[in-house]
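User: Structure tokens for this complex, please. No commentary.
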Amino acid sequence: MLTYTIRRLAFAVPTLLVISFLIFGILDLAPSDPTAQLPLTIPPEVREKIRLSLGLGDPFIVRYFKWLVQFMVNEPLNILEQWTGWTIGDGERLRVLSWQTRSPVVDLIVQRMPQTLWVVGMSYVVGIVIAIPIGVISAYRQYSWFDQFGTLFSMVGFSIPTFFTGLLFIVIFSVTLGWLPSIYDTTLVVEDWDSFVAQVKQMIMPTMVLGLYNASQLSRFMRASVLDNLNQDYVRTARAKGMTEKVVLLIHVLRNSMIPVVTVIALNLPQVFGGAIITEQIFRVNGLGQLLIGAIEGGDIPTVQTLTFIFAVLIVVFNLIADVLYGILDPRIRYD
Amino acid sequence: MRLRNLLSATAAAAALGALAGPALAERGADGQVNIIYWQAVSILNPYLSGGTKDVEGASLVLEPLARYDETGTMVPWLVEEIPTVENGGVSEDLMSITWKLKPGLKWSDGSDVTAADAVFTADYCMDETGGCQQVANYADVASVEAVDDLTIKITFTVPKPVPYGPFVGAQSPILQAAQFADCKGAKAPECTDANFGPIGTGPYVVAEFKPNDVVVYEANPHYREADKPAFGSVLLKGGGDAVSAARSVMETGEFDYAWNMQVEPEILAQMEARGIGKVISAYGTSVERFEVNMTNPDPDLGDLRSTVEGGPHPFLTDPKVTRALSMAIDREILVEAGYGAAGQVTCNVLPAPDLFNSTANDWCKTPDVDGANALLDEAGWVVGSDGVREKDGVKLSLLYQTSTNSVRQGTQALIKQMWQEIGVETELRNISGSVFFGGDPSSPDTFQKLYADVEMFTNNFDGTDPEKYMANWRCSEIPSPKNNWLGGNNPRFCSEEYDALVQTLAGTAKIEERAEIAKQLNDMLMESGAIIPLIHRGRVAAMANTIEGHAMNPWDSELWDIASWSRAK
Amino acid sequence: MTDAAAVRPDADAAAAADAAAAKRRHSSPWRDVWAQFSSHRGALAGAAVFAFMLLVVLVGPFIHDVDPQKLDIRAKNQFMSWEHPLGTDNLGRDMLAQVMAGGQVSLAVGVTAMLLSVLLGTAIGVTAGFSRRLDGPMMRLTDLFLALPLLPLLLVIIMLFRDTLRQAFGPESGIFILIVFVIGITSWMQTARIVRGDVLALKEREFVLAARSVGAPGRRIITRHILPNVLSPIMVSATLGVANAIITESALSFLGLGFPSDFPTWGRLLYDGANFMTLTPDRVIWPGLAISLTVLSVNYIGDGLRDALDPRIRGR
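Assistant:
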């Protein structure tokens, strides 16, 4: 398993290079333009100058290598300098600058991490906490009322998109009842009990909207997987040996049912980082998802490239983690 | 699953309207005012981003020498008076203008404002390598000099009947030379601290800025009027969509002011009925219009598609056809369905200021389906078996494109039906705004390429003088592969007479004569059918009932008078 | 689509299964499958609902023959009435006619895109899980697809292929093919990874080892031993895939990348209606209900099908 992990890690580098090149190529081909959001009163010649000043006049390959050096060399060196206080070289390194804000993309990302990790991360926790018991009980008592209700709930939850549930929540809890704020305040600093309550209040709606959506998806996979395992011979054996139902269910079945669920969670965890575009928009959480969609709409190639590349790294890493977990959950799986 | 996450909101343009009330009290007495812009502010230096949201976000801090008030009149802001030929501020030959700063002005860091700051600002923007987005305001400037500490003299390369480009309006404010000294040219984008927290003369200073998210401002301790601003701080939040922004002002009351409410009127009316906030609007120069392709967009033409070389359009060059198309449209219905208080019927592409508004085309205000049908019959277009008119084997069938936005798609559907009644068949297409307005020469879907028969969007001009705007429809401005599709003449309208008249306009100084010429230019465009105006669009905003002292201004930054805002007791 | 409906009832009552299955003992495997399936109450109910939806969507427009595109601005934002059984939208279009017209597109897109995505995902997942040699490349390909920024990718695809397809198949079928392709090609990765994970575990199980040791060829092992055992996650993916495709289609149209704006689909109706939720709730209730019912019925059909194809359950 260790050699497998090391081999996979080594192989990840060329994979990521290829991915970064392809992403850059697609962004370059895409017809979005950094001047599209400017008012039409800015004349076409000025727009052309703006494009040139952003470096769009350079050939594709030059721009790609510029980004690669800025992201792979300059940014890590900057971080190193900040952490250690050393000065490496002359310190005059060009960082990856966003075209929209003209500021370093990495700073923007760091600024937006807290709200995304809190809101989106918490919604995954909520989702997993809800989904696993529902999935297990639904499968164990298949076709009971609990199962039927769970199915209805998760299907409706999945087929109604978050733009709708978010709006519904706002109409109910903000407009009609006036309990919760409809707009997330990113300037809030938690320092005492009151600000903590305010933070919890503003997190409730976005977290629940996303959490319910995640739960409805996850609980389906959980239920299906537990159902499969309940019919296996080993369960019969375990019962025959006189084990209690609790042990059978929670030790044997649950562990063996986790493979598809681990996959789904591993696929989704990078998306915690990617943010939740719609939910962030509705509640104005303005995290990484909103940064990405804003950058895409504004044709801000350096920001989109950097965000999607970091995203790609996370996907590769989490899929590797999932593969390792498979081996732990089911020792029969061997990669070597 | 990931795809559905991509749902998002599109962008549009517009702004607000209002009432004014007196505000006494002392600086900062009214606490905080919360403003929501559903497009978030990206940067607070308007020279590096011309986006409306960025210009307006910066306008709380940075100020020009003169600006436009809610009636479109130029008012002195950092100067004593507006220079004119009469008061000697503009030279007789129209080649230079001299501004006199008010004495005693301070930057928010306490230092003095001098003419050298204005000189620096002009140099900063006119630097070729800086990518300044407002450089059009400095067109034809030969030099800017500081005659003394308070006197700025701008010399032009050509006579300028309207010399109010540099340092006038929210797009062209004064920067502090000391702060931006090391940020000229290619280094401009690297000065993040300065671009995110410019030092200004305005009523507020930047306290906290999270790009594309939120700006927190605090009152400027050195602001020139001691009792202003009444609000000690301003929170300018961004993101989301227009409807929820309106909701936060008029239904939940979390915010006091929301910008650019392009929302279906019945939704706004329902929110307004709660009595917390109101919708305010004012009209500038924005017109939602059709630009009609005078050249042939047939895909079979390959590279010659939609170019003058590709030949004229098979039927849209006939003014009878375009007139019939215009007559068939019931503009009142378009206003009622999509605009409400934010739109008025217009028959001119140049609807404002009032002096410039022609009355020659008012026939379009009343829809006339029978008249349109008669006109087409007369022109020889016969209704075929499928209900679509045709002549010589050519069908009256149009591809109608616009940007993606729910109001525009509603308008598209309505017009399709109106045209159906006169035997015109329409295929609708909507294109993401970031592509449509993007101007990427490799994309077939930009508004300059116009690979369609007609396209609909809104345009306007800054300030109150239409000279630059009307010059868009000269022959030389036609977008084509030769100029990399850069040019403002999307209809590919070309008339020597028009070009000559634009030339005359540039040499005319008297305002009445200028208005007369501008009206003629407008009428020529209307008669040729190259442009079919639809709706004169206003700026619309939602404002809490408790806010006083705001006059909705369509000619400048919407937040131009924020120093006078206060909260009703 | 009609054929698809016929073969997929679904079930949610299992107790009756044993007795019914026991009756038809010595018949062909497919008869067994059908017997098991038709004894699954939920599956039958799901199939009935799905067939009913199809019927309404396909035959309904002939009974309620109002043009879904007909605007009547004087009759906008109306509630239910005899003339407009589901009310009208803010431009005065009849909602019932729109829901029915939208259903034809949404069901077609939902089912075909789901099939494409599930087939692709299963094929890649099984290959990668089964063949050690192909595992690396296939999974790196999956990583690549997961990492691609979709919106720019879509803009590129649409820019490159829209006009070609429009000329070859006409504006509507051209865009239909494009949308199904786009949704299919961008949503198979989850299925692939889940299937691969299961296959990795399955291929070390005794029965697969046994089959291998008696010399069964790889293809036969996959079809006879592996595939039936990974059906549950595939069925779940398929169910979720239908909902996903319907909603994604609305996102595409909304972004100006899908069908023209005067072409109603359920997702689009829901999206356009969301802002009118407090004014005319009908506008969101009906399309929302239609999507939920479709997904729910497909889910039960999937449940029944899985049970029917599972030899262990069938034997019970």
